[in-house]
């Protein structure tokens, strides 16, 4: 009988009904400290088990509604209903089937369990319920603040990825009606000089000239990447081409200075800029 019901719950492929029968000795491990608790268990696939649980909950609610109607007790909005509304965004839709709960009835949607009004676990004072609701509100506020923080971090990561790849990732969080921001791809022009690439000359002056040449050679490569970037407007493309030409000219001037110094010291001149930029027309 429904008045003997202690709990209805399901977990994965298991559906169980716990009833209180004082004539029998409990053989269940889930006794909650009570004697005479009997557990009836059935097994099936998860979807079927969940459907049976939902129907059992609805049938139990029908029994409670009839009992309440006979006693002419007006149906009032309980504190448990208010607590469930506070977490409505995170609770399954199944829990809405049991929004009109009887006295002190509580639905545990996390594991599909019903603790009915007759069990000892449901005997909670009104003061404790108010404290629990206040605690839930505080947790909700903290979770919302943390969520906003994580969303901002995700936006920054997505924007950085878009700058590197030229395409906005689908994970970028958007509000209702919001359009994704337009981001231009950044051209990688950063470079790092390896200490092993720097020339080792005995002459300090020639050493400085050679090091200066290597640095400006990297600058020329960076200017070339900027000038060859696609989808540039006419003025920007013209400006970058001019900067690239100026960089190449500066590189040639540094090599001329190196060759003049090498001839002065009795050494052979070099043609580094021509070898470093094959196929390029040097002004």
Walk me through what this model shows.
The protein is built from six helices and five strands; from the N terminus they run E-E-E-H-H-E-E-H-H-H-H. By secondary structure, it is an alpha+beta fold. The model is unreliable at 90-110 and 116-123 (pLDDT under 50).
Percent helix, as a range, is 40-55%
- 3D shape: rod-shaped
Widest sheet: strand ordering: 3-2-1-5-4
Q: Kindly name the structural category.
A: alpha+beta
**What pattern of helices and strands is seen along the backbone?**
EEEHHEEHHHH
Largest sheet: 5 strands, antiparallel
What's the average pLDDT?
Answer: 75
Total strand segments: 5
Q: How many angstroms separate the termini?
A: 99 Å
Strand content: 5-15%
Rg to the nearest angstrom?
A: 38 Å
Low-confidence stretches: 90-110, 116-123
Number of helices: 6
How would you summarize the topology of this molecule?
Blueprint: E1 5-11, E2 14-20, E3 37-43, H1 46-70, H2 79-86, E4 106-108, E5 113-115, H3 126-165, H4 204-227, H5 234-264, H6 272-276
Antiparallel strand pairs: 1-2, 1-5, 2-3, 4-5
Helix pairs in contact: 2-3, 4-5
Keywords: Coiled coil, Cytoplasm
Subcellular location: Cytoplasm
Protein name: FRM4B protein
């Amino acid at each position: 009988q429904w008045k003997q019901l202690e709990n209805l719950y399901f977990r994965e492929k298991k559906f169980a009904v716990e009833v209180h029968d004082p004539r029998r000795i409990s053989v269940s491990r889930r006794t909650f400290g009570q004697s005479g608790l009997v557990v009836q268990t059935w097994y099936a696939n998860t979807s079927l088990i969940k459907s049976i649980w939902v129907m059992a909950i609805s049938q139990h609610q029908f029994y409670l509604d009839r009992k309440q109607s006979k006693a002419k007790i007006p149906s009032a909005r309980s504190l448990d209903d208010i607590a469930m509304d506070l977490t409505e965004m995170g609770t399954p839709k199944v829990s809405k089937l049991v929004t009109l709960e009887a006295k002190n009835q509580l639905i545990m949607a996390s594991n599909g369990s019903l603790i009915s009004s007759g069990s000892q676990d449901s005997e909670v004072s009104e003061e404790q319920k108010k404290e629990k609701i206040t605690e839930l509100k505080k947790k909700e506020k903290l979770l919302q603040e943390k969520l906003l923080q994580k969303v901002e971090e995700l936006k920054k990561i997505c924007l950085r990825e878009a700058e590197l790849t030229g395409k906005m990732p689908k994970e970028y969080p958007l509000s209702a009606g919001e359009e994704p921001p337009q981001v231009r791809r950044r051209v990688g022009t950063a470079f790092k000089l390896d200490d092993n690439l720097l020339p080792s000359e005995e002459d300090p002056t020639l050493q400085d000239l050679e090091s200066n040449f290597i640095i400006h050679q990297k600058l020329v490569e960076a200017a070339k990447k900027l000038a060859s970037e696609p989808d540039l407007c006419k003025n920007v493309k013209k400006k970058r081409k001019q900067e690239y030409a100026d960089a190449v000219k500066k590189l040639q001037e540094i090599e001329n200075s190196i060759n003049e110094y090498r001839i002065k010291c009795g050494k052979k001149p070099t043609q580094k800029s021509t070898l470093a930029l094959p196929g390029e027309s040097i002004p």
